[in-house]
Amino acid sequence: MERRNYPRFETNESAMVIQDTGSPEKTVILEEVAEQGVRVIGYEPLKPKDHIKIHFKVPFFCPHTVQKKAVVIWVRPASGIMWEAGLDFGPDNLVNIPFQ
Questions:
Q1: 40 in any annotated domain
Q2: Is residue 53 part of a domain?
Q3: CA 97, CA 100: separation in Å to the nearest integer?
């Protein structure tokens, strides 16, 4: 059984990932949101342990764009040519999810 520290909320919103200064933004789909991280899916793989920035909006709980620094925890193939990744914001960088 999988243990979760924070509840996850499914979503289907676009997000922008920036891997480092000067690199182009990558568009991904935000599949799950939790206080300490997100799961994304996209066409260009990220690398585990990379430090990135992610910008996203989740209309059902946050009216403005959320900007977070994150670490890529895991990456795995998804359907077809797509990949998915788990991003961790860290315990001191949580997203405030008002309804729990």
A1: yes
A2: yes
A3: 7
